[in-house]
Amino acid sequence: MKFLKIPAATITRLSLYTRALEDLVVEQVTVVSSKTLAELCGVNPAQIRKDLAYFGQFGVRGVGYYVKELLFDIKKILGLNKDWNLAIVGVGNLGCALVAHENFTKQGYRFRAAFDADPMKIGRKLTTGLLIHAPDKLGEVCRTEGIEIGVICTPPNFAQDIANRLIEVPVKGILNFAPTQIQVPEGFRVENVDFTVKLDNLAYHLTAG
Amino acid sequence: MKFLKIPAATITRLSLYTRALEDLVVEQVTVVSSKTLAELCGVNPAQIRKDLAYFGQFGVRGVGYYVKELLFDIKKILGLNKDWNLAIVGVGNLGCALVAHENFTKQGYRFRAAFDADPMKIGRKLTTGLLIHAPDKLGEVCRTEGIEIGVICTPPNFAQDIANRLIEVPVKGILNFAPTQIQVPEGFRVENVDFTVKLDNLAYHLTAG
Hints:
2 copies of one chain form a homodimer. With about 210 residues, the first copy, chain A, is an alpha/beta fold. Chain A has 2 domains: about 10-80, Arc Repressor Mutant, subunit A (Orthogonal Bundle); about 85-195, Rossmann fold, CATH 3.40.50. Chain A has helices at about 10-25, 35-40, 45-55, 65-80, 95-100, 100-105, 140-145, 155-170, 195-209, and strands spanning about 30, 65, 85-90, 110-115, 130-135, 150, 175, 190. The first copy, chain A, has a 6-stranded parallel sheet. In chain A, helix 8 (about 155-170) links the parallel strand 6 and strand 7. In chain A, helix 1 (about 10-25) packs antiparallel against helix 4 and helix 2 crosses helix 3. The longest helix of chain A is centred in the N-terminal third of the chain and has 19 residues, at about 10-25. Chains A and B meet through helix 1, helix 5, helix 6 and helix 9 of A and helix 1, helix 5, helix 6 and helix 9 of B.
């Protein structure tokens, strides 16, 4: 399944649509208009229709979208109709917060392995029951657990080394929380999470607005 | 200073450009071509020129951009030519990780106040030296410290109450890490941080790619 030239912003919005649709499922809403869905997502209805149009025909004119059906379809587009096996590397405050964060599980992201270089942590378990391994077990444990995505939460100076080991496993992609740029082979997918980018957005609007 | 109809993606990219430019300043690079800057940011040169064109004329044809000058100008556009005073509400694993995160300080975001409802934490200090207050001190402490942005890291069921209190202070904006939608008065600015959106992006590309 290949969809070329889909704007990154569309993918991000599809992700937000699934959040709203999941809430509607919980509230037992079966049909939603693009107007209501748009309000829930903080976008305009035309945007939703435009984003979905990249992937086919959705919804029924004059009726709206069938909630469960649209959720299923968007999840399929995003590759979320399966669970993903994750490894966390670095279980300091941030790593622990991520592993315990309910959104990951809700979205089908399962932490299956944890690593930390701190001898005080190795061999102990996280509150979720996940055993903390030494980094030199990374290849072995990740292969055994079928890890697909590595999540890096180490201090910045260790991030590249960990990335190299994850690529060697091989995992399919990396989510990097370390505040540093990671070099990866061409075609290998890394998403960087920088909290301050959101703050810059806020600062811009508080200044400009 | 008002710039209307600037795409949100442009603001996010400007934020990324400042990260690359700051690295160049550290490396004592004084001039950078749009090609090199584009490579450092993982975008194409035309994108940089287009993003900057919203705000005026930057760079010198045949020379490139003066690093410090461009950094100064983009920071001014983003409202980052000043420090911002932040309060953190909820100092669990995630809250502690944020307060200690070097990127915030580097970008001029200063945590000036911390709050938590846990009686075991109230009156204690974070590793950064910041005193943890009870939530009922929120209004008083935030006003004394001149807090402009509230950062919510509470469990989801407390987030709305804390948001209401922050709006009452009043703070200018909220950065919300709690996995729930917060209702705010029209015109009040909230940025939501949802880590799993980045993972959805990754999942999409690992599936579609």
